Amino acid sequence: MNILYIGSGFVGACSASVSASSGHNVLVYDIDEKKIQMLGSGDRDTIESCLFEEGLCDILVRNKERIKFTTDYSDIEKFLDDCDAIFMCLPTPEIGETGESNLSYYFDAGEKLAEVLVSRNNGKQEKYIVIVNKSTVPIDMIDKTKEILDSAGVKNYGIVSNPEFLVEGKAIQGSLKPDRVVIGAWQEKDFEVMRRVYQRFYDAPAVEYIEVNPKEAAAGKLMANYYLFAKLALCFDVIGRTCESFSDLKFENIRRILTNDNRIGNWGFYNSLFAGGSCLVKDIRSLSHQLQTVGVTASLVNEMYLANKRQLELFLSRAEKEAKFDWVGKKVALIGTAFKRDTNDIRNSASIDIVNFFREQQTSEIRIYDPAAMDNFKQVYPESESIKYFNHEFEAVKESDVVIIATDWPQFRGLADAMIGELKNRPLVMDGRRMLQHRYEDLQNAGFDIIAVGSPFIEGRVLGLKD
Ligand SMILES: NC(=O)c1ccc[n+]([C@@H]2O[C@H](COP(=O)([O-])OP(=O)(O)OC[C@H]3O[C@@H](n4cnc5c(N)ncnc54)[C@H](O)[C@@H]3O)[C@@H](O)[C@H]2O)c1
After folding, report:
1. Are 205 and 316 in a shared domain?
2. Dist CA 407 CA 427 (whole Å)
3. Count of the separate structural domains present in the chain
């Protein structure tokens, strides 16, 4: 089949590459020239510095004959004459803090596309084509998509909602072996087209292939994200907070008691300073906004959002309250800038708010390390007198007065050894991911004060070393 992707971000690029690996001919269009050049470069380092997703590069190189990247709309015009499906993979961010989805990227791309769809097959529009909403969109988006296409005079088309459930950091792995594929359509012939697009999954015994209507598909995606977000918020705002508030409760032990109940399950039991990323927060905000628009109070949805916000505020405030730490003039190490491990994505990452907090507190130097996301972070916070980037986590930690671990990269677990063995000073350790929990006692015995999500304040024991 011939498939066009509009938007080559995490979703567009990953989904397009999996389509190519399924044997389809794929054209990927984006307005971002640099991104298109990098993704189409065929060079591993270039592709990875653009989108750090394990397996993406291999799949792109292996299928280079079947996947093309372009910013030139005339390529689309030619492609449309024999195109079976178009996947819309556009950003749908929140407008300010309103919860409302910004659909302008969608409308811009949709209107431009509609103009050329009407002239396909020399204006005869003979080829039946399916337009697929792949982005996470409001429940009634399908009606808006139809309006755009109808008002431009597009004929002989179907519309489908096919929400994406990929997990950043495991996007390719997850897209090659999804738990479920959800297709929302009104007409059988659109389901038929989608079954051909996803033949490898339609026939696969381990994949749940779910056919519903387009609004159910869009709503299902929003509610899945609400459910996941709620689990994270419960983990740190209820379980973590309880462990912080009573002595002798180890978060990992409580977790084991809970996760061994099949009804509870084990996803989401990571204590963290913040649940960031481009999706979960904006999607629950969007759900809340949509409910309120139809007159429903979305108290529980809103409370989860607030729980996440207060988690970061509480965590940062503990330095002053519990360790009597004065930030002014201090050197601070920020370990991890990606919103989570295995990605270079910094959208809505706690690290952004942390740097703003450091600045408000008038720290003297911010020392930063991340194994994959530093280039993206430098675009927001360029290197300067007060912001320094390092090539190793321990280099950033050296000479710092406080160390904040903000991302759960596995290698950060090794910091405890280096800190105990090699550091002369004793910075305050703020573990926002419980990465050093296996060594809290050793760190404490070596004189480090520790503030960790899910633990009460841990005061260093060898007091003489602190000065
Ligand atoms: N990132 C995820 O983990 C994930 C998972 C599931 C669903 N989603 C949803 O998928 C959608 C896309 O997410 P993403 O992470 O891929 O976003 P992204 O920001 O990484 O990518 C979007 C791409 O669209 C391009 N674009 C913007 N306007 C355009 C236009 N007019 N024409 C062509 N291209 C245009 C941008 O340049 C960008 O490359 C969002 O709705 C998101 O909520 C994301």
Report:
1. no
2. 18
3. 2
Q: How far is the CA of 6 from the centre of ligand 1 (A)?
A: 9
Calpha distance 174→57 (Å, rounded): 15
Whether 220 is in a domain gets the answer no
Closest CA to 442 of 423, 417, 422: 417
Pocket test for ligand 1, best of 18, 34, 51, 89 (most atoms within 8 A of CB): 89
What is residue 458's DSSP assignment?
A: B
Q: Is 218 in the pocket of ligand 1 (CB under 6 A)?
A: no
Among protein residues, the one with the nearest Cα to ligand 1's atom 15 is 10
pTM more than 0.85: yes
For the stretch 76-120, pLDDT in tens is 999 999 999 999 999 999 999 899 999 999 999 999 999 999 999
Please give the distance, rounded to the nearest whole angstrom, from the Cα atom of residue 132 to the centre of ligand 1. Answer: 14
Residue 126: domain span = 2-212
Read off the pLDDT of residues 302-334 as tens digits, 9 standing for 90 and up.
999 999 999 999 999 999 999 999 999 999 999
DSSP 189-219: HHHHHHHHHTHHHHT-TTSEEEEE-HHHHHH
Q: Are residues 337 and 458 in the same domain?
A: yes
Query: Which of 193, 212, 231 represents a domain boundary (last residue)?
Result: 212
Pocket test for ligand 1, best of 4, 17, 164, 173 (most atoms within 8 A of CB): 164
Q: Which residue lies with its CA nearest to atom 1 of ligand 1?
A: 10
Using CB atoms within 10 A of its CB, is residue 127 exposed (0-12), middle (13-18) or buried (19+)? middle
Query: Using H for helix, E for strand and C for coil, what is the string for 93-133?
Result: CECCCCCCECCHHHHHHHHHHHHHHCCHHHHCCCCCEEEEE
- 225 CB under 6 A from ligand 1? no
**285 within a domain of the structure (yes/no):** no
Predicted confidence (pLDDT) at residue 466 exceeds the cutoff of 90: no
Dihedral sign for Cα 216, 218, 219, 220, please.
Answer: positive
- For ligand 1, the distance from its centroid to the CA atom of residue 430, given in whole angstroms, is 33
CATH number for the domain spanning 357: value is 3.40.50.720
Q: Which of 180, 212, 244 is the last residue of a domain?
A: 212
CB distance 7 to ligand 1 below 6 Å: yes
Q: Is the CB of 108 under 6 A from ligand 1?
A: yes
